[in-house]
Write a structure and sequence with these properties.
The complex is a heterodimer. Chain A has 9 helices and 11 strands. A 9-stranded mixed sheet of chain A has the order 6-5-4-3-2-1-7-8-11. The radius of gyration of chain A is 18 Å and the shape is globular. The two termini of chain A are about 25 Å apart. The C terminus of chain A is likely disordered. Classes of the chains: A alpha/beta, B mainly alpha.
């Protein structure tokens, strides 16, 4: 058993490896960590590399994969990539859920029946409040898409990212996701992290290294401590949570991450519920 | 404007009389890459930041932290305290840096050389402004400088005269270390020159007061 596998099995290292599939997005959310938007450089990791990372991660002893962006489903080849990745480890792909037109839903065929789940952002139970942060028509498209995905057998998680939410509003949001076919255990509520565009809008909480689980995250710019690490400020990728520029072989950043984790002072637990 | 070192022929033992008037450009421009501040320091680089500014070499290498964390111990071992005397190592470092035309390294190590006990005249000789053979009386130090010239020239084999001169005064392990010191200095010379690393204001101020800017 590798040192990574031992650490994962013992719970000293999170089992999931994240990948930034791309950095561009059809939305420009006010709290976006990566300043993603339609016009930003794409910076795609690429099909071949993503599948390669999946294989390396499995070999090293990681247990899960995560894919984020940008909006990963802007990459037309993504379903095929996810299907190949899922041959190695289960995959959770984060999406804004706005691209699933009937034509795009048909393109999801490669992942049907595979170990691929989706996490879709839905912040508020009302269109106006939701779309104020995420852009016009976001709510309607998401609410339309989720049942279509669920009925195809795709596991859908909902991520609610908010500064705060009233109990009554949260109750309505939970009622909504249940109606859409998403059970409570697949609803994640998390704070806005004050990085990327959230800084410009004065949103969110400051997350330090020790607040963030050490989930190895691979991008075109290198390997980071967490998927909250490779954030973008004024068009420049932040380096404060950079581990290594080397990402191939995956054992290089994985080994460096483990070394960092094992040097953490005792009792230095995760302080924020950021997942 | 680039450093005003004249182009020179490949250095041989007979080129030791080479003298060049040093006149560095006024350096106020930015470095070629961002120098990462403490708040931007990648995780593996943080130990090298201490309480703040780690200097431009660390702040530049921090862009590639996995390189930084192996390069810094090597640089420290190659250029720092060792079996060779501090003064001897600075002879090599200042001389090689001058031959390579590295403004940052010459300026920074001029200050270090003063701390190591070298005189203003000796430093000027190492910096090619005076003939070192007229300034350094000791045969061992002249051999070190001749060896530095031979190594820094970098074209083919070093001269037998330079090698024999060194052998007369230094053991094999010292020869190895002098050569590694020269090589590590050359690496840093090219890094600092290509990336236009800035000399610290404190060093510039000191060199001005010493008449060595």
């Amino acid at each position: 058993m590798s040192a990574i596998a031992e650490a994962v099995a013992a719970g000293r290292l999170p089992g999931r490896v994240w990948m930034y599939a791309d950095y561009h997005c059809n939305l420009a959310c006010t709290y976006c960590l990566t300043e993603s938007a339609p016009g930003v450089p794409r910076r795609e990791l690429g099909h071949e590399r993503m599948v390669e990372i999946a294989a390396e991660a499995a070999e090293l002893g990681f247990t899960d994969l995560g894919v984020t962006g940008g909006e990963p489903f802007l990459l037309m080849s993504l379903p095929g990539t996810l299907a190949e990745m899922a041959e190695h480890l289960p995959v959770l792909v984060l999406t804004n859920g706005t691209l699933f037109t009937p034509k795009r839903l048909a393109r999801l065929e490669p992942i049907l029946g595979r170990r691929v789940a989706m996490q879709i952002s839905l912040d508020r139970p009302d269109p106006d409040a939701n779309d104020g942060m995420r852009g016009p028509e976001n709510f309607g498209k998401v609410v339309e898409a989720i049942p279509r995905l669920v009925e195809r057998g795709i596991r859908v998680r909902i991520a609610t990212t908010v500064e705060s939410i009233e109990e009554a509003e949260l109750d309505r949001l939970c009622a909504l996701h249940r109606d859409l076919g998403v059970p409570d255990e697949d609803h994640v509520i998390r704070p806005i992290v004050r990085r990327g565009r959230a800084v410009d809008h004065g949103l969110g909480v400051t997350a330090r290294q020790q607040d963030l689980p050490a989930e190895l995250t691979i991008t075109t710019d290198g390997a980071f401590w967490s998927p909250f690490g490779p954030t973008v400020s004024a068009g420049v990728v932040d380096t404060d949570l950079l581990i290594t520029r080397t990402t191939r072989p995956l054992g290089v950043p994985a080994g460096a991450l483990l070394r960092l984790v094992e040097n953490r002072p005792p009792g230095d637990d995760v302080a924020l519920n950021i997942r | 404007m680039e450093c005003r070192y004249a182009s020179y022929e490949p250095v041989t033992s007979s080129a030791a009389s080479l003298t060049v008037e040093i006149a560095w450009p006024n350096v106020s421009r930015m470095s070629a890459v961002r120098l990462l501040a403490a708040g931007e320091a990648p995780l593996l680089a943080r130990p090298y930041y201490g309480d703040g500014d780690p200097g431009p070499i660390v702040a530049a290498l921090a862009h590639v932290p996995e390189l930084l964390e192996v390069a810094l111990p090597f640089i420290g071992a190659a250029l720092g305290p060792s079996a060779l005397s501090w003064r001897t190592k600075e002879l090599v470092i200042v001389r090689v840096s001058a031959l390579a035309g590295c403004r940052y390294c010459v300026q920074t190590h001029t200050a270090v050389a003063l701390d190591a006990g070298l005189s203003r005249e000796e430093i000027l000789a190492l910096r090619l402004s005076l003939d070192y053979r007229e300034v350094f009386a000791g045969a061992a130090e002249r051999a070190v400088i001749a060896w530095s010239d031979a190594v820094a020239a970098g074209h083919g084999p070093v001269s037998g005269q330079a090698r024999d001169g060194l052998r007369a005064h230094f053991a094999e392990h010292e020869t190895v270390e002098l050569t590694v010191t020269a090589g590590a200095t050359l690496m840093l010379n090219r890094l600092a020159t290509a990336l236009e690393l800035p000399t610290s204001p404190g060093t510039l101020s000191r060199l001005t007061s010493e008449g060595l800017l």
